[in-house]
C-alpha cells in the first residue's frame, strides 16, 4: 500500500485490525473476503479463511487458533468481538497474524458502535489497518503513527471543529466543516504523521459522513483494492 501495490514488496504483511484510543464500545462482527485476479477483464472471488473472522468466535486470540491476536481491552464473545467498553481511556484491537500477499483484495466488515456520549458523539473512533506493522499501540486510533500501509478511519469525534469553536467564537465558522462520524482513508510510506488535532485532514485521500453510531442494525463496510484502485 505504501507504493500503491497492495500485498507486495514493502507491504510485506497485510494486517486487519480495529482499534481506538478511547471511545464507545464497538463490536467487530465479521471480516475479510480476498480477491484473486484471474485475468485482465474479470476478478474471481475466493474467501481467504486465513484472513477471515466469522461466527462463532471461540478461540480468537488464543495460541491454539494461530490466526488472530487480541490487544488491549478487546474481548471475545460467541457472537461478537468487543474492542472496548463504553468507558474513557480504553483501547482494543484484533490483528491478523498471517501475511497477505494478494495483489487485488476486498475486505468486508460488519460492526456496531454504541455509547452514551452527548449528541451521538464521543471517543475517537476506530480504524481498519492494512499495514506492515502490527500489534503496536499508539496515538492513531489505538495504533502506531508513521505506519507503512493503509488506514481507513471511522472518526467519531470532531477534534478540529471543537478547537475552532473556541478560537473563532463569534467569528465566521471554520470552512469545510465536516459532519461526524466521518470515514476517511490514508496511505503512509512511514514518513507521514497523522494530525490528530486536525482529524487527519492534511493526509486524507478522501472521506465522507457516515451515521454509524447507536443504530439497531449492523453497519456494512467494504474496502476494495483492485487494479490499483482503492474503493471504500
Write the layout of secondary structure elements.
Elements lengths: L17 E2 L5 E13 L5 E4 L21 E5 L2 E2 L4 E2 L9 E5 L8 E10 L10 E7 L5 E2 L3 E2 L4 E8 L3 H9 L14 E8 L16 E4 L9 E8 L2 E3 L1
Antiparallel strand pairs: 1-9, 2-3, 2-6, 2-8, 4-7, 5-6, 8-15, 9-12, 10-11, 12-13, 13-14, 15-16
Nutshell version of this structure?
By secondary structure, the protein is mainly beta. 4% of the residues lie in helices and 37% in strands. The strands form four sheets. Strands 2, 3, 5, 6, 8, 15 and 16 form a seven-stranded antiparallel sheet that branches. It has a five-stranded antiparallel sheet with strand order 1-9-12-13-14, with no helix packed on it.
What report would you give on this structure?
It holds the Pfam family Lectin_leg-like. InterPro entries: ConA-like_dom_sf (IPR013320), Intracellular_Lectin-GPT (IPR051136), Lectin_leg (IPR005052). Residues 45-232 form the L-type lectin-like domain. It is found in: Membrane. This protein is mostly beta strands and 232 residues long. The protein has a single domain (42-231), classed as Jelly Rolls. The chain contains one helix and 16 strands. The strands form four sheets. Strands 2, 3, 5, 6, 8, 15 and 16 form a seven-stranded antiparallel β-sheet that branches. Strands 1-9-12-13-14 form a five-stranded antiparallel β-sheet, with no helix packed on it. It has a two-stranded antiparallel ribbon with strand order 4-7. β5 (75-76) and β6 form a beta hairpin. The longest helix has 9 residues, at 159-167. The relative contact order is 0.21.
